[in-house]
Design goal:
The chain has a two-stranded antiparallel ribbon. The chain has four helices and two strands. The chain has one domain. The protein is globular and about 35 Å long. Helix 1 packs antiparallel against helix 2, helix 1 crosses helix 3 and helix 1 crosses helix 4. With about 100 residues, it is mostly helical.
């Protein structure tokens, strides 16, 4: 498993937490098809890592590179819904750059 560091403030982590939580609720609700359960569980794990990082007051967290596509999609959906701000944009840029 390849991990990438995402450096962000506590506020940015909170925004990312909210964006991913909203994405899970919309696209991977409880009782989803079995094929969606893996994605749901993986994204819930990201939420758990964000929560721990926020509780520990650290500036960033390690992120499973395989989940980048799900998280960038969550941010793009937030953008389409008008919930995209500078903090979300900074995280999006880091995720996008991590493709290389």
């Amino acid at each position: 498993m390849k991990l990438i560091p995402i450096t962000c403030s506590q506020d940015q982590m909170q925004v990312l937490h909210e964006v991913i939580s909203s994405h899970i609720a919309q696209y991977f609700p409880p009782g989803s098809a079995d094929s969606s359960l893996v994605a749901r569980e993986a994204l819930l794990e990201v939420i758990q890592h964000l929560t721990i990082a926020m509780e520990d007051s650290v500036e960033g967290f390690m992120f499973n590179k395989r989940l980048r596509a799900f998280c960038t999609l969550a941010i793009e959906n937030a953008q389409a819904a008008g919930q995209f701000d500078e903090q979300t944009a900074a995280i999006y840029i880091q995720l996008f750059k991590a493709k290389k």
